[in-house]
Amino acid sequence: APPVITIDGPTASGKGTIAHRVAQALGWSVLDSGALYRLTALAVQQNGTNPDDEMAVARVAQELDVAFQGEQVLLEGRDVAALIRQEQVGNLASRVAAYGPVRQALLERQRAFRMAPGLVADGRDMGTVVFPDAPLKIFLVADVRARAERRSKQLKEKGFSANLADLLESMRARDERDRTRANAPLVAAADARTVDSSSLTIDETVRVVLDLWSS
Ligand code: C5P
Question: What is the DSSP letter of 192?
Answer without folding.
Answer: P
